[in-house]
Fold this protein.
Amino acid sequence: MFTPKRLLFVWAMTLAIPGLIPLRAEELPPPAEKQVVFDTSFGEIVLEVFPTAAPGHVARFLDRVKSGFYDGTTFHRAIPLGIIQGGDPLSRDPDKRPQFGTGGLGELKKETSPLSHLRGTLSAVLLPGNPDSAGSQFFICVTDQVQLDGQYTAYGRVVEGTGVVEKISQAPADSSQLLTERIELKRAYLRDRPPPEVVPFVDTVVSELQKYSAIIHTSLGDIQLRFYPQDALEHVRQFLRFARLGLYDGTVFHRVAPGFVLQGGLMDTRKPPVPDKYRPLLKPLKAEFNPHKHVRGVLSMARHDDPNSGMDSFFIVLDIQPHLDGQYTAFGYVEAGMEVVEAIVARPVDGESPLEPVTLKVEVREK
């Protein structure tokens, strides 16, 4: 008989299978028509499952949800901001707490799923050393756990309620990661998957994009932006898409470098976090270097070392910066409001971090 502590050791030591290329969020297979709703003591978690990724696991999981199998079980184990684990039928009985994590296993053979263990992924719990031992127990990744790819069968993902998952992961636990607070899965049921939301600016052509501008509303005033869609098509589309969906709202200007740049829009600074349904849209852009110079007022996309890693965070140039030309993608400019930019730059900082960051709300306008 294994213990939850032993299972953690197995997880921590597993490595991804060489050559396996797991699917990222934007490459997921078609989900089932029904979504699964977990009504828990901490709130609702909504999941979608992928029959083509792991048909046996999905079929058994859906059958159990429909039969009420999970009702009254608990999330019995958690690693803070790592994983949460549930689905053990023994967890209905508080007196069996020492056995939590040992029930409902040894029923399913491993299915090699193409899904990656990213934030929100639903996957099957195994007995140590036995890949064909999955059953009713499952775990949900609170953060990316790609070292588990190829070792465990991933078959679903959270589409609503990642905040609930995070909260459960941080509940009090003992030295074996068994939760000391009873967090009940009060009811699991199926609901129809809502129709997909129309994603704006997916294929809007240059002539149409030239009609759009954007206003960054701040507590210190407004900054009006115009764009270069003819030279940075995908960057303009993505900026307008995030703005139209409200994803930039609640982000901040997180970097202030006087005489250099003012940077903001990083989704990691957003309060509240990006809604789960929009997370698949957060993907990097290929560089679109162009002849526009990085002079005062130019809007450009921040990135990591990889030139193709720009995604959400943008910067406004404060003075001519020729060393950025051809290295960063300029995709617009400040049409009005540089005095607001300077007012933000003039606020107190600790190094390049503002002591009281200014929050953004971005509005898209059309002629």
Q: What stands out?
A: Residues 216 and 222 are 6 Å apart (CA to CA).
